[in-house]
Design goal:
homodimer, alpha/beta, five-stranded parallel β-sheet, 8 helices
């Protein structure tokens, strides 16, 4: 099938507590080879961390060279360390025909759409209600009260921008939401990049 | 599942001879209830024709009232008779939660995207090569030589605009192309209209 080995992008956004990680774990075996986009940083590796798993660890010089080459979707300097989403590992994964999965916010979605719009399918994953989100955040019991309040404030803001996404998946029942997301991810594989379309168009009359 | 009964749109474009009708017939039983958009005309019904099957037959007054109400995606006056794609039967089918299938050209796709973009998935169906298209057009043996030449000229022009579509399906092997189109059509069902997203957003904090 012509479309099988195209690298494509699946953007997942949604509040912390929406269940993005649970969903992606649930469908992982059914969506073919995928690469989960990992941030790049210049900060020192901590104990238990692994390069290419928790972060891509690079030097300050490498990071700044990538900035110059316009290879970051987004980046920030925090306490003297750079953090960012580099396009280099993404392009590598795309060239291997993988589905690249981003877990990013609404600004990140806009950035991905601008750079990789032709091969991108975007999904907003929402908890069914604000009170259910609060319940889930408290059930984790890992966050302080002010962290929880802050996450809910951010959620309220993000929810306003759902219409910018190709699909909305309301994660009420995890099994149902996973089925829907799986369906979307499999279809995302069928997107054909513009450069392939251009070669097809150019060769169409000659073949 | 929240998304089951949304009316959504599937646009199929592609040269005459690409196999759009064969494909839609092949997947018809697998994509749920759908409505195939039919043109509206003011010309007299001919023998063997049926209202709502071959065309929606309306009076000139009805047609012109719809023009005034901006209810046409596109229309033309040919030899004193109006022909057009009316949004009224489309809106009716959408309100019944159907998948509305359009067989329209690239201009029509732009018009649908402008009016119904939030619920539209567009697919360009292409024959694998120009020579294969010519072979298929001649195999039908229903068209005059100048009609065939004209269809190929139009095909060359349409092919240039594939990038305007969400998906490209190359109809080389009918079974494979049908599988791909079925997958796309099923996922098209998962699109959620902006007005539903707005109600969701508005009710999200109250629920």
């Amino acid at each position: 099938m012509i479309v099988e080995n195209n690298g494509v992008v699946l953007v997942l956004s949604g509040p912390s507590g929406a269940g993005k990680s649970s969903l992606i774990n649930k469908i992982a075996d059914d969506i073919g080879e995928y690469y989960f986009s990992i941030s790049t940083t210049t900060r020192a590796m901590r104990e238990g961390e692994e390069d290419g798993v928790h972060y891509h660890f690079v030097t300050k010089e490498e990071f700044e060279k990538e900035i110059e080459n316009d290879n970051f979707l987004e980046y920030a300097l925090v306490h003297g360390n750079y953090y960012g989403t580099s396009l280099l590992p993404v392009k590598q994964a795309l060239s291997e025909g993988k589905l690249v999965v981003f877990d990013i916010d609404v600004q990140g979605n806009t950035a991905v759409k601008n750079r990789l719009g032709d091969i991108t399918t975007s999904v907003f994953i929402s908890p069914p209600t604000l009170s259910e989100l609060e319940r889930r955040l408290r059930a984790r019991s890992t966050d302080d009260e002010d962290v929880i309040q802050n996450r809910m404030k951010m959620a309220r803001r993000e929810i306003q921008r759902i219409a910018e996404y190709d699909f909305l998946v309301i994660n009420d029942d995890l099994d149902v939401a996973a089925e829907v997301l799986k369906q979307i991810a499999i279809t995302a594989r069928l997107k054909i990049p513009n450069d392939r379309i251009n070669s097809f168009v150019q060769s169409w009359e000659d073949m």
